[in-house]
Amino acid sequence: MKIRALTLLCIIVVILSGCSLWNDKPSPSSSPGPTASGAPVAEDIAKAYLTAWHNRDFASMYALLMPQVKEKLTESQFAERYEKIYAGIGAANLGVAEIPQATQTAEASGSNKDEQKKRVTENVVRAFEYRVSMDTIAGPIEVENKGMLRKIQMQDSEEKKWFVDWSPAMIFPGMEEGDKVRVQAVAAERGEIVDRNGVGLAVNGSEPQLGIIPGKLGDDADNVKAMLARKLGTTVKEIDRKLGASWVKPDLFVPIGLVKESEIADYKGIPAVAFQEQSLRMYPFGKATAHLIGYVGEISAEQLKQMKEKGYKSGDLVGKAGLEQVLEEKLRGTDGVVVSIADARGVRKSVLAEKEAKQGESFQLTIDSELQTAIYNEVKEDEASVAAVEPDTGEIMALLSSPAYDPNAFTRGLSSFQYDEWNKDPRKPLLNRFARAYAPGSSFKPITAAIALDTKSLDPTEKKQIAGLKWTKDASWGNYYVKRVHEVNPVDLNKALVYSDNIYFAQAAVGTGNDKFTDGASKFGIGEEIPIVYPIAKSQLAKGKLSGDIPLADSGYGQGQVTMSTLHVALVYAAIANAGNMTYPKLTLFDDTTVPALWKEQAMSQTTAATLKSALVQAVANPAGVGHGAAVQGSSIAGKTGTAELKASKGTKGQENGWFAGFDANAPKLALAIMIENVQDRGGSKYVTPKAKRIFEQAMKQR
């Protein structure tokens, strides 16, 4: 009985002793804060640690860690770990707070009974819960976590103190020693560009990437690199440059160049060669759409300075030319990012925050890729600019410049040799001619006629007698004169267009006067930017205000200081086909009710448009006409040729640019304008008309 009583007494003592050890809260009679001995209680340590963390005071956090933790981790290592993590994820607005009434106590456990006894008698363990929140580059992070406090007997002292038993899991739940917080960018897929029928003009694809595993090159490295240089069209120096990058290791794949799927077999058996699939921007129509679509390339240091605030970073691909550049911000989309915990092998353990990638906007153009290709094949050997427009809708069906370059060469890795070859080519394949304005020559004459007819300055049926091949208004012109090729009398509007009579149209312009002529030209949009997304040079009558009879006379037949883009000329001829209305030009297909149907309502009257349409049909149909080469059997092509002379002064020889502009009068579904440089000694504008004929025939086949 005494033994049982004594045993019961011992149990009571042990329980009471345990309560005393594990319950460190002050007694009701005690005030909050340090105990009577002055030592901080567990709650004070937890709050101090969380407050220091909230303030990013890592030194104060470290001061509260257990001595055993400090033996393995210096203060600078501790602070650097937090700072690197927060810097890497772009942490801002850090908030760390205790979760109220969440304190729990627990006995330290040990596999060894003696160790367990030692912890019970010497250490006390207490849990505290807290919440950490912050904004990051991947969005907000908010986690609830648990930390541990231990009460430790101080060395050479009977005093016991509370410390934070720190581990990586206190940074983020689930972290272990060796784990890392990893930030991974998720590239947004670039929007694609397709033609009116959905055929890809700039698409996302992939090609095999040939690479070298440096550690496998062996003793024959020089011969292997020389062989690869020959096959890939590069140099050993360039291969060595890539192999010498700071990140390269013997067992890593080092990209060298892209090859086609059909070429992989050619590299079979070459030591150290391996392949990976590489994402690639591809341009299926190559040169035919090069200047219109453009290409992408790695962002330059200069571009990065200007675009860094928009989220661009080193290594990003950006539009370098064409619509790829013009529509860059819409095509590129927004990259996503994932903040995660990964183990030492790089295997993801958990995701802390994630911002999904937003795909770039895709664009459908009004371009007909089949027609574009047919036109390019007609002029690819020439220095040319061509535009084709659907008259009743304003939709641009073709827009190209030649000679051209292959945009795929830029995305696959352009060699310096290839770039130098293009850059030094006197035909200038890198120059976008359709974006420029040129002297339109006689293709401008219908505009002169329209202005004169609508201002009643010209009677289209009046038969004029013009003596000789030269005309001077009066003595005030001195030695200056206007010259024509054919002396045809009498001459009316129809005959003037058939024989392209410069004097007739010079007189029409002078008879209209500077002010009326300038005002009439503005009705065609001359002096304005063409309202499409692609920047095209503005057309002009003169560099300043048009004044004086000589500049006015020269303007009448498209010389002097008159300049127009081929697109603008095509739009003017489309207006003749469209009863005088210039439809609003469209390069992209979209549902936007804010875009008006017309750009210039009644740029000329319906009567004038009908008169010009009839006369332009004669200018092509008449075998004596310079435009007859564009005639298509079974159709009624209305059009006008032009030869713009670029020379320092009258009486000298210079470059000649040949033009043809027109449409099928019976079925006006295509208004076409072609400009070809350097047609001197090739028949002038007669060199252009057969090409126009074949283009119309191709377009008619597609209907």
TrEMBL record:
- Name-wise, this protein is Penicillin-binding transpeptidase domain-containing protein
The record's listing under PANTHER family reads: PENICILLIN-BINDING PROTEIN 3, PEPTIDOGLYCAN D,D-TRANSPEPTIDASE
Give the lineage: Bacteria, Bacillati, Bacillota, Bacilli, Bacillales
Q: Which UniProt keywords apply?
A: Membrane
Where in or outside the cell is it found?
Membrane
Q: Which Gene3D superfamilies match?
A: DD-peptidase/beta-lactamase superfamily (3.40.710.10), NTF2-like, domain 1 (3.10.450.100), Penicillin-binding protein 2a (Domain 2) (3.90.1310.10), Penicillin-binding protein 2a, domain 3 (3.30.1390.30)
Q: In this protein, which residues make up the domain named NTF2-like N-terminal transpeptidase? A: 42-179
* Residues in Penicillin-binding protein transpeptidase domain copies: 385-697
Quote the InterPro entries the UniProt record gives.
Beta-lactam/transpept, Beta-lactam/transpept-like, MecA_N, NTF2-like_dom_sf, PBP_dimer, PBP_dimer_sf, PCN-bd_Tpept
Pfam families recorded for this chain?
MecA_N, PBP_dimer, Transpeptidase
Q: Which family does it belong to?
A: Belongs to the transpeptidase family.
Q: List, for all copies, the residue spans of the domain called Penicillin-binding protein dimerisation.
A: 187-348
